[in-house]
Amino acid sequence: MERLKWRINKTLVDLEELAKELVEDGLTSAAKFLRNSANYLVTFAKLAVKGMEVPYTNNLIERLMGEIAKRVKNKWMHWSTQGLENLLNILLVRYCNKQLFGEIKEKYLSQGNKPLIQVTIT
């Protein structure tokens, strides 16, 4: 952990030095952005130092967001608030609790239970 703390501090110092160089080169907007963003660049490292579990990748979340976007970003689809919440809950269970999703799928989509689809045309 000491090595990680040292690396966080070194990174922040290096970013500040880079921001100073950018100002000297007349790139004040880039320097301002770098100074404002520096702490965000080391967020995961700071969380790890505090003992929080940091995921190796965010692929699962990216995939989930893509799945949600794919289902709701069609021009011809209009979701009610309740329908969108139901879809989100189903997708969250599917990605985060595969056992529960399997049970739900078996309960509602098995041959003995024929799903009822209700359509309202306005």
Can you tag this structure with a few keywords?
2 domains; 122 residues; mainly alpha
Could you give a quick summary of the protein structure above?
This protein is an all-alpha fold and 122 residues long.
Please tell me about this protein's structure.
The structure is a single chain. This protein has 122 residues and is mainly α. It has 2 domains: 2-49; 59-109, no CATH class. The protein is 70% helix and 0% strand. The protein contains 6 helices and no strands. It has helices at residues 2-24, 28-41, 43-49, 59-72, 81-96, 98-109. The radius of gyration is 24 Å and the shape is elongated.
Question: What gyration radius follows from the Cα positions, in whole Å?
Answer: 24 Å
Order of helices and strands: HHHHHH
Count of discrete alpha- or pi-helical segments spanning 4 or more residues: 6
Q: DSSP strand (E) fraction? A: under 5%
Unreliable stretches: none
Separation of termini?
61 Å
Structural class, please?
mainly alpha
Shape: elongated
Total domain modules = 2
Largest beta sheet, briefly? none
How many β-strand runs?
A: 0
Portion of residues within helices: over 70%
Q: Can you give the mean pLDDT?
A: 83
